[in-house]
Amino acid sequence: MPQRPVSGFRFTAKWSGTPLVVEDMLGEGANGAVYRVRTPLGRAAMKVCTSSSDVAMEWSLLTSLGQGASAFPKPMFIDDGPAEAPFFYVMEWIPGIPLHQVMGNRDFGTVVKAFESIILALMNLHAAGYAFCDLKPENVMVTHEPSGVAIRFVDVGGVTKFGRSVRQYTPLCDRAFFGIGSRKAEPSYDLYALLLGLASGSLSGQSRNLAKEDPLRRRRIVLQSMREFPVAGIEMMFAALEQHNIHDAHELWQAWNQLPERARRVRLNPSRRRKSGASSASTQWSPSGTSGTSGTSGTSGTSGTSGTSGTSGTSGTSGTSGTSGTSGTPRQHTYGGHRVRKTDWTEWVMWASLGSAGVACLAAWGVLLGWLR
Fold first, then answer.
1. CA-CA distance, 319 to 322, in Å (whole number)?
2. Where is the composition biased (Low complexity) (predicted)?
């Protein structure tokens, strides 16, 4: 097993002669580990690989993508070192908080802004003909700048040219794991990874258990998690992606900005699926609003009693059947933290009809008993 550099480890790069001091490990991936180091120019990030071919490939990608306004770190130099760091390259160190930690802190306002920034970053990456592929929340660093929330990508190891097979992926962010599509590097692969990464945050650490399930069951589980995500628009975008209404980051950006404001913001009281009654029906988000569940059929009224004059009492009117859509169940609104029930016009009609039937019934009894002449 190869040795690893520990905190405080000092060495000099073989070819450039640059002195480096390891501070701590930032993360580990399929191709190696990333460390924060001190250099004569300040702090930087060092990616250590055990294979010279891996470090050469990543360095080539980084020098191609990490320039200009790219979301990837800026490359500094590539070199060799001692047994603890045989092949490595040094790049810009990006301070910030990983997206999965932001999600764990339930700061979903920041998550939404990061989501929007990721879409824009993917537009630039896809324009260069590459897919990120391993787009998990751990590989996205969130920073707060004067202009607002910004994101940076911190791992170039999985970046793959369009049309090739995905080399690195994380199961919970992999559409093929959920039986939704292939592992082919293309724009839609990154879009699925982005949405699945947000929705499966509550499933973190369960990939082994999910691996025992069939893909259809996995998909149902992640869809349930997506329904409970505090931003309704995430589920709506996933549905549009599955229906092939969205194909790339540009279309995702357009569709997202066409949503109503409420769908793109955090719900104060995220709705949970109830398991009983009419609420068990499937509900889908759509740009026109939330589709309701079927209403409950009303109960028949009480038949009137025949009076002395031989006129039969007025029969009670049957309850109004619930209609599908938003009119099926009276909507509820939240004011000051309390849920307020909003009654629709069909319920008023029902109560008016029942009231009329009651008055007619009393009149019939009055005639029968001689109270009314």
1. 9
2. 277-329
pLDDT of residue 345: 55
What is the reported pTM? Answer: 0.71
- Mean pLDDT of residues grouped by 10 in the chain (373 residues)? 86 98 91 95 95 94 82 96 96 95 94 97 96 96 91 94 96 95 98 95 76 92 92 96 97 98 83 40 37 41 41 43 42 38 54 72 67 57
What are the residue boundaries of the structural domains of the chain, listed by start?
10-92, 97-264, 298-369
How far is Cα 213 from Cα 178, in angstroms, rounded to an integer? 10
Q: Among this protein's residues, is 134 annotated catalytic?
A: yes
Q: Which residues, in sequence order, are CB contacts of 31 under 8 Å at separation 6+?
A: 47, 49, 51, 54, 58, 157, 168
A 10 A CB-CB count for 355 gives 10
How many residues belong to the chain?
A: 373
The pLDDT, as a whole number, for residue 201 is 78
Block residue for tokens 């701590």: 24
Considering the candidates 79, 134, 155, 190, report the single residue annotated as catalytic: 134
Query: Quick count: other Cβ atoms within 10 Å of Cβ 20?
Result: 23
Backbone angles phi, psi at 31, to 5 degrees: -100, -5
- Distance, in Å, from the CA atom of 151 to the CA atom of 113, rounded to the nearest integer, reads 9
Q: Would you state the pLDDT for residue 147?
A: 85
The label of the residue with tokens 């009670």 reads 316
**Which spans in the chain are helix H?**
52-65, 99-104, 108-127, 187-199, 207-211, 215-227, 232-242, 249-258, 345-369
The per-residue pLDDT for 368 is 64
Domain 10-92 belongs to what topology?
Answer: Phosphorylase Kinase; domain 1 (3.30.200)
113 labelled ligand-binding: no
User: What letter would DSSP give residue 276?
Assistant: S
Name the CATH architecture for the domain at 97-264.
Orthogonal Bundle (1.10)
